[in-house]
Amino acid sequence: MAICKTSWSPPISARSSWIALRIVSYTPQVEQLFNLIAADIRRPLAHITHRVTYTNLPEDAAQVLERLTPIERELQRDDGRWYLARLLPYRTADDRIDGVVLTFVDINQRKLAEEARLEAHRQTELILESISDAYISIDHDWCGVYANQAVEHLLSIQRREMLGKDIRKIYAGTDLEAFFGQFQQAMDVRSILTFDAYYPAARIWVEMRIFPTAKGGIAIYQRDITERKAIEEHWRISEERMRLLNENVQDYAITLLDVDGNFIDWNAGAERMFGYTAAEAIGQPNAIIFTPEDRAAGVPEHEMATARDEGRADDERWHLRKDGSRFWVSGVMTAMRAEDGYLRGYAKVARDLTERMRADESLRRAYDDLEQRVQVRTTDLASANSALQLEIIERSQAQLARDDVMRQLITAEEHQRQRISRELHDQMGQQLTALLLGLQSLKDISRGRPKALTTIEQLQGIADQIGREVHQLALDLRPTALDDLGLVAALTNYSTDWAHRTHVNVNFHSAGLDTLRPALEVETTIYRVVLEALNNVARHAQAKHVSIILERRDQHVIAIVEDDGQGFDTEQVMATLRQEHRLGLLGMQERLAQFGGTLTVESAPGSSTTVIARVRVSEQPEGQAHV
Q1: Domains 2-109 and 482-616 share a fold
Q2: What pTM was computed for the model?
Q3: Is 482-616 a domain of CATH 3.30.565.10?
Q4: Residue 624 has what DSSP assignment?
Q5: Integer Cα distance of 517 and 490 in angstroms
Q6: Which helix or strand (DSSP H or E) is residue 83 part of?
Q7: Burial, 523: exposed, middle or buried (Cβ in 10 Å; 0-12, 13-18, 19+)?
Q8: How far apart are CA 606 and CA 543, in angstroms?
């Protein structure tokens, strides 16, 4: 702060008062405004040059001396810097007026901030005037503070009529009056309110947002969403009609497919006809309802291609139900295109004509049967005799070749598993990646369409789940770690993943197999036995902990899987498996027997279960190729 004290002698005018003011004292900061030196004490202030623009200083000084009241002025220095000048009467110790005290406060930052605030306010008003959304601000007394031009169009009232006036009176009896309660709520709780509002008189919908402002007021932002509401209502009605159609049409299967041939809608008639629920069918490829031979021949793809190119595709053929049964279907697939001609998917309507087809087939078969019955009867005896002789020879030969065939079957099975696993990982993985990229692209071009975006996001989730399941299936079929790293690494990876999926703690320990690996066939057999044991734990044991021990003892590899589950009667369970010809542990016993191995299961109801696999092996250094 710069302070300058002046003394005076009684003036005869404002100008003479200015000349009569003499400098008594000043602070060093005054030198930034007045060209003062120490020798200027007692010199008239009017003789001192200065850098401030203050043309009314003589008049203000005279007024202060005359009225004995302070005066404040905002002024600028010659370089544009702002100061607040205060003129006060100078009183001596004996309460005598002896001049004027001039103080200068640097307010440059405040002025710059005020100018920036004013400029921001102007810019805000320009923006608000340029938008099509209505904006009103009112103070805590409900008086209008500002309204943009869009308010006049939306509310049909001139904005000048509301500025400075109580809007409750201005908008009394209008559509806006119905929302005064929300305005008051926003004022009281000082929170943001957002809701959709309908103006019956104007027949428009608006999205209304109410924001609290300074000093207890609020700002009301309104966007016309009438068109959006109309679209939403149109979609709601369309979806309701589609829902009623899907729920009430029972004799026809009506399904919708995306451009890739995956089901995205499945009506009640389709559930009745094919046996799949909507939850089971949606997201699946349409090939699931075709027979294996039609899938192999590319019939599903050909049907979509015909519908895409010609607009529709008619066909009558056998289809599959969920339970694997076949039935004769007459159907038509139609391509669904948007107004711009872009393909959005397919619709398929199918009808079950099995009974009619079977009636025709029965007539034809009855006729053929009459002609062939005599010939069949004649050849039956000869065939039976030949078959009996052949069976005797084959049984004697089969017993000799059994072990060799079993080995070949096991090897072929593992090769097939390996091939399928790699194809699932490489080909299906690439196709699923392409599908996800396509869905993302479709999502990007569907912005602004909430329903479409929701469907696309659901499809993305389904595709992502399929990817994870395909990956898990590939690992279950044939893990690459088994071929590349060996049995220990493969079981380590699988047990960790199994524990994560089943939430059962697994403790895996191996010994004696770090440097010597058994033959690949033995590794594969041990690996399958452990997997089967873990699967049985997950399905039946209700266990919390599982221990896996893999070790080499002398010339044997031993795998032990022990759980703390509920146990079972081993004799009863094994007898049941044999009666029902079920695989599982019996199949593992068979595989181990091919290599001179054994499988032992120890368990009792209410006790733990231990599965022990033992097989004799030949040594093979780690990293050596399997022969």
Answers
A1: no
A2: 0.34
A3: yes
A4: P
A5: 13
A6: strand 82-91
A7: buried
A8: 11
